[in-house]
Amino acid sequence: MDKLLRKKSNIILFLAPAFVIFSAVLIVPIITAFYYSLCDYKLNSAPTFVGLKNYITIFTDDPDMKIAFKNSIFFMIFSIISQLFFGLILAALLTNIKRGRDFFKNVYYLPCVLSSAALGLLWYFVFHPKYGVNKIMENLGMLENANEGTLWLSDTSGFIILPIIVISFVALWQYVGQSMMLYMAQISGISKDIYEAAAIDGCSRTQAFFRITLPLIKPMMATAMSLNAIGSLKFFDLIFSMIPEAMRGKGGKANVIATVIYDQGLRFNKYGYACAVGMVLLLMCLIVTFLINKFVKVESYE
Amino acid sequence: MKVDFDDSMVEKNKGQRQAVKIAIYVLLSFLVLVYIVPLLWIVMSAMKPNSQFKSAPWSLPTGMEFGNFIFAWTKGHLGNAMFNSFVVSTCTLLISLAVGSMAAFAIAKLRWKMSKLALTYFMIGMMIPIHCVLFSLYTQFARWGLTNSLLGLIIPYVAFSLPITIYIMAGFFESIPNELFEAAVIDGCSVPKLFFTVGLPLAKTGFMVTGLMSFVNNWNELLFAMVFISDDERKTLPVSLTKFVGPHSTNYTQMFAGIVIAVIPTIIVYCIFANQIVEGLTAGAVKG
To answer: Given this model, what pLDDT does residue B288 score?
Structure first.
């Protein structure tokens, strides 16, 4: 029996297809992308090695990247904090009720499975200066005329421009269900005995939440926060579908890292540069994940 | 549990608890509105003629009109795009399930020294943002003539679905007791037969969960689909939708119909399989 399950030929037979596809389409391209990032590589020309030139341009000489870093890091911080806060509140509320729990849970989770592109377009119309929320404000008498209302998605004043803030709220709306679900899974795994013992000792429900629930779900907090961080650094679909083209291309104020990659690669065919930006993104994801896991996942209690 | 309270305290607590409960339900119901109203608004507006939408965008539609949907489906190429998305997502699902579950079986049930290492190797894929490989893969596929074809989209999608598929399926195989396999081996079962007759039937839930997840993810994928496919005929649903809906046109209600067409299939799938999808996505994230 043992011999059969140890037979090399069987192992190779079962593992090979996945190994080949995965390596050829993900691992090898990562390595070539790293090489291209050190090259001057444009359409119709072979890559020529230029060392760190692309990286130096990214950090010192590209105004688009400066804006992209600013916006992406804002997205990341906003999404980590807001999702942690609202995700925890929703999870705590839902684990405390019985009736309708699945219904609420499924409704809040719904946007996570829908296409961000389609939802972005939907919200684009909700924030349309003429027909969306501005029209509601006009109907309610808060605005004289919808046309004079706030330009939600094209205002460009301020350090963090309004469209970026609007989109971060839309992203919160779309993805908070994910965080909620992770926390709920963890909370419902905590033994009821602990809460009963605490109640006997005179612990109120609020106290129980802060003293028992929070410490016990800390490992999950690290997981959820890293997921949010990576997700928001990669952010592309919502920006692409909600922001007018002029604001997310070259010189646009609403650029994020992913839109720069798209723009440099597809519009200007500067593949080497696009790969370098991709490498920076990968590095940022790894650093943030590392930091979160180092500082949040202090110890596991169970 | 039994705790001694005097009667008045119990009464007071009961009333308070009731009030808190009502407050919670009010809050949760309000949030449901925040989630449902934007979706309903789009559906309602899609049934209006454009002129009616422009004069009163937030009013109820006066009748049911399907002209907008027909326009978006045919002239907006969304029908065609949906077919492409269906082909791509289904092929990806079948291939990644087949290939992924085999690898997961090898990792979880076959006995070799490096199985843990192999799992870690595949898990690297979960940490890599696909943006990093976008253009190195694109230039490679362009050389091979794989860009602008659905196959060129299916291959990377399979690769991106593999880590999560392998992770979840390995978990399911792991949970099957070894005795079942041992019994089959004593009966003279070969390893491939073991996989098909013992492993697969017992990991049915795993298939369901990973399959739905990979389907939903690939159905919604935008960036790769946009870069890899330039031919209108072969574009997938999210790409055609972003092309059809945009500032170029002022016929809003037709665009709304387009958005509705794009989200309806996922909503239907979600309504049927909500619990499995939720379970799968959570299981995938909890790799701890």
So the answer is: 35
User: How far does B268 lie from chain A, in Å, by closest CA?
Assistant: 11
Distance CA B92, CA B160 (A): 10
Average pLDDT over residues A85-98: 91
Using pLDDT thresholds of 50, 70 and 90, give the confidence band for residue B160. Answer: very high
Which two three-digit tokens encode residue B279? Answer: 């379970």
Exposed, middle or buried, A73 (CB in 10 Å: 0-12/13-18/19+)? middle
Q: Which residue of A has its CA nearest to B104?
A: A15
Q: Partners of A39 in the beta sheet?
A: A49
Instruction: Tell which residue, A106, A225, A116, has the closest CA to residue A177.
Output: A106
State the smallest CA–CA distance between residue A196 and chain B in angstroms: 7
pLDDT surpasses 60 at A20: yes
Q: What are the pLDDT digits (tens) for B38-80?
A: 999 999 888 888 888 888 888 888 777 788 888 889 888 899 9
B234 neighbors B149 (Cβ within 8 angstroms): yes
CATH code: domain A33-295 is: 1.10.3720.10
Whether the per-residue pLDDT at A195 is higher than 50: the answer is: yes
A13·B25 Cβ contact <8 A? no
| Nearest by CB: A241 against B110, B195, B242 | B242
pLDDT at residue A112 above 50?
yes
Instruction: Enter the DSSP assignment of A33.
Output: H
- Rounded to 5 degrees, φ, ψ at B270 are -65, -45
State the best of A22, A240, A264, A297 to mutate against chain B, taking most chain B CBs within 10 Å.
Answer: A22
Distance separating alpha carbons of residues B91 and B98, to the nearest angstrom: 11
Q: Rounded distance, CA B142 to CA B57, Å?
A: 45
- B220:A117 CB<8 A: yes
Mutate to test the interface with B, among A2, A3, A5, A8 (most CBs of B within 10 A): A5
A115–B28: do the CB atoms touch at under 8 Å? no
Q: Do B132 and A4 touch (CB under 8 A)?
A: no
Name every residue whose Cβ is closer than 8 Å to that of residue B18 and which is 6 or more positions away in sequence. Answer: none
Closest CA to A239 of A257, A227, A224: A257
Interface test with A, best of B43, B122, B136 (most A CBs within 10 A): B136
Exposure class string for B264-286: b at 16+ Cβ within 10 A, else e: eebeebbeebbebbbbbbbbbbb
Give B104-157 pLDDT, tens digit per residue: 999 988 888 888 899 999 988 888 888 899 999 999 999 999 999 999 999 999
